[in-house]
Amino acid sequence: MEVETLRPRLVIDTNVFVSGLISGAGSPARILRAVQRKQAVHLVSDPIVEEYLRVLGHPRIRKFRKITDAFVADIAAYLVYQTERVELQSRIRMSPDPDDDVFLNTAVDGRATLLVTGDKTDLLALRTVESIPIVSAGEALFRLDF
After folding, report:
1. Prediction pTM value
2. Is residue 3 over pLDDT 60?
């Protein structure tokens, strides 16, 4: 029987998630493939799911041929059935962008191993939240050896 705590627990910022969906190459896509292969647990909270789906519905993102209504429906099903939902209790307010605090709170309440982001200005600049490293997709791959 697989022990859940042995798999890394990742909170994935919207920019990394969407980049990984759009392009099959690069660090974001490799992280999503690792999650798909059950090498890591993808932690989400309701506000993160809402943001993912809102961004995937944006016309700038929809211009990519791959991002169709059917594709977004598949992603919504993935988010419901194949991620671990985190109930938010924390009220951390650390990011210069208050919209990013939900990722910090999800990482803390979900006991994340890493918070993975491409947000250099706000999230990466924090470096940690309650001892949880905040890292780029490339750094996450290096640390986790995916």
Report:
1. 0.94
2. no
